[in-house]
Amino acid sequence: MNKFAEQHGLEKHRRHSRNGFSSQPNADEPSYMTCRSGDCAQCPSYDLCRKRVLIVGGIERMEKAYRKLVEERGGIFEYHAGHMKSGGKGLENSVQRADLVLCPVNCNSHGACLKVKSLGKKFKKPVHMLSNFSLSAVIRTMEQLHAAN
Predict the structure, then answer these.
(1) Environment class of residue 1 by beta-carbon count within 10 Å: exposed (0-12), middle (13-18) or buried (19+)?
(2) Residue 51 DSSP label
(3) How far is CA 35 from the centre of its chain?
């Protein structure tokens, strides 16, 4: 595994026996670590604690990488391609369901970015505009959000 993946926790989470985490995987448990204590501050690696993360736009071929990144941290991943002609209502429904919205500005239209911001305000959802679509930008934003909480 490369250093970037190790530094940013892209490998499977290690299971800890302290602080409410089991050291043995459970057959009916998802592959990501599940926080049983409900206290995200206790998580050994930041955990999204089943929050629904919506990524709007980005490079469509990176959807699998975005999904892996979010789901390995215990989140529920949702993706909207950012196309506004046929996806306006779909985008509204996705933002309404989301707990966190990430929108890279370098690969979305101005109209899509404005729509995401206005829907975030309408539904009182946190929207974070990313400078680019890279995995490191997504990781950096999630780490900043975790540090702030």
Answers:
(1) exposed
(2) -
(3) 16
pTM: 0.70
CATH of domain 45-148: 3.40.50.2300
List the chain domain ranges.
Answer: 45-148
- Per the document, the length of the chain is 149
Distances (CA, A) of 128 to 24, 101, 131: 36, 6, 10
At 88 the pLDDT is: 81
SS (H, E, C) 73-135: CCCEEEEECCCCCCCHHHHHHHHHHCCEEEEEHHHCCHHHHHHHHHHHHHHCCCEEEECCCCH
R_g over Cα of the chain: 16
User: Residue 102 forms beta bridges with which residues?
Assistant: 55, 128
What are the pLDDT digits (tens) for 106-120? 999 898 999 999 999
User: Distance from CA of residue 140 to its chain's centroid?
Assistant: 11
Specify whether the CB–CB gap between 57 and 107 falls below 8 A.
yes
* Residue of 63, 149, 72 whose CA lies nearest to 102: 63
